[in-house]
Amino acid sequence: MQTIQHALTALLVSAACAAAAQTGPVKFAGIMELSGSGATPGTNFNNGVKLAVKEINASGGILGRQIDYQPADSQTNPAVAKALAQKAIDGSAYVVLGPVHSGSMLVTMSETQRANVTNFTGGEAAGITQQGNPYVFRSSFTQLISMPKVARYIKDSVKAGSVAVMYTNNDYGKGGHDAMLKALEAQGIKVAADVPTDPQQIDFSAAVLKVKQSGADALFLYTLEEESARALRELRKQGYAKPIIGETTAVSQKTIELAGDAANGMLGHVGLTVDAPEPRIKAFDARFQAEYKYKSEHNGMKGYISVYVVKAMTEKLGKFDSKLLAESLHGAKIFAAQNPGVLMDVAFDKNGDLDRESFLICVEQGKQQVVQILPAMAAK
User: Fold this and answer.
1) How many CA atoms lie within 13 A of 235 on its CB side?
2) In angstroms, rounded to a whole number, what is the distance separating the alpha carbons of residues 181 and 60?
3) How do residues 155-207 score in pLDDT, each as one tens digit?
């Protein structure tokens, strides 16, 4: 009799635990660069995630469950990031958000794949989604989409026949550099100088001198926020007056703030900007500033959108199943009219890359001014 009672008790306890697991908080894990060279994009991405989580929880959560978001600092160290991915999996995370830096993402995404856990990243390196990992999704454009847009703009609008390319010599920078060189070649634009720089580089005097001596018609700048600001200040110091074109990080709000007047006149392509003439984006900008007392840039928007994409698809599925979530996101289209938190209509392809409108901007008086809206690639 005791044996039967013990078995019945164990069964009831197991059932109660299973029921609690389906009704208690759902775990979202963040692998964020909160210190080290990636602290600027990582902190912004993390703040975007936190704002989305706060809003969703205040409105009842996802399928009635609150989000338990637990961010951890990768220190911009791939080895630390990989260990955090393993910890997130052991903690039964429904989704993993981050890392933002491509180098860290490239070593952590095998862990989330092994556990069948959906993983969002703000990283842009083309290689992230070229490895056949079915659990990886971007909240940013891949470099293979961004760079052809920039090269076409350099040819058609800037009218440059030759370009100097300055880039950060890491996974992120080299991926963008290689994609850009192919895009420039396709447009018949000559690369007059190819100038690598180091992550966290302080002195850009020699790099800028190489750009000036090349005689190129324009400069394409592809470096991280702090480095971009230093490069822009040195370019202005040395009297560089030719067009400077950037992509995302080089024209981000953080870069503009750090560079000051040196950023004015900078041209660039951005997948996201809070200065876009779109009511949903303007409303997000106001909420973000009210929460954090500073203006968001693209990484804050990426983190925010990632959470709302997960919410939209989970509610469509009607249950929490990370493997099914990933399967369903491939080929999915999510419309902002029905899901305002995604801010703009977005579609995901078979590789986890996204497609949506993007923007060409010019920096004027310390702000991004949208000069052109580019349609989604599928709309062309």
Assistant:
1) 28
2) 48
3) 999 999 999 999 999 988 999 999 999 999 999 999 999 999 999 999 999 99
